[in-house]
Design goal:
The protein has four helices and two strands. It is mainly α. It folds into two domains: about 80 residues, no CATH class; about 90 residues. The protein has a two-stranded antiparallel sheet.
Length: about 190
């Protein structure tokens, strides 16, 4: 459902129509006409006819014109194949970015758990007199740093997901994915 595919399909239909129009020049043209004229006496005069036109010789090389139209159709087909390939690569690239961000976020959980445990130990050590206030502040800063890094990775994930959905032509699904999210990042109170 990528919007680029519909543009390429429109260009292909346009090229096919131009080719059909150039092919029509090889065929005879049939025209029918009619005219009714009322003269001063009130009696109508009728004229009707049929005309057939078939050019046997023309200054335009119709075969070359037809071949040019066929080349435009072939070019539109090649463009369609190229666009499909490019979109496939873009989707794969965006999928890999989503997967990398997801695995990076999940692997950061161990660091956050370690930083929380260190903070808990420093708080307990401060109560027992084995840690200093500076050790506690360092542990708090370390936890904040780890949480900030994980939030940045989560932001990368959301951006990569949005890019993936856009490249597949499903950008309207983004809000549904966000509503179903199983992990929500919130700011902890100090």
């Amino acid at each position: 459902r990528h919007p680029g595919l519909s543009k390429v399909a429109a260009k292909r239909r346009q090229a096919e129509s131009l080719h059909d129009a150039s092919e029509a020049l090889h065929k005879p043209q049939v025209l029918a006409f009619g005219l009714r004229e009322v003269n001063t006496s009130g009696k109508p005069n009728w004229v009707a006819g049929v005309a057939v036109r078939w050019a046997l010789w023309d200054s335009i090389d119709r075969d070359k014109l037809s071949a040019a139209g066929q080349r435009k159709v072939e070019q539109a087909e090649l463009t369609d194949a190229q666009v499909r390939s490019d979109i496939g690569l873009l989707v794969e690239k965006n999928w890999l970015a989503v997967e990398q961000s997801r695995s990076q976020y999940l692997s950061g959980q161990a660091q956050e758990n370690l930083a929380r445990e260190l903070l808990r130990l420093r708080q307990a050590g401060l109560k027992e007199g084995t840690s200093t206030t500076l050790d506690l502040i360092d542990a708090q800063l370390n936890l904040a740093k780890v949480q900030t890094e994980r939030a940045a990775v989560a932001n990368q994930y959301v951006q990569a997901l949005a890019a993936l959905l856009e490249s597949t032509g499903q950008s309207d699904e983004f809000s549904r994915y966000m509503a179903r999210a199983d992990i929500k990042i919130t700011q902890d109170a100090p």
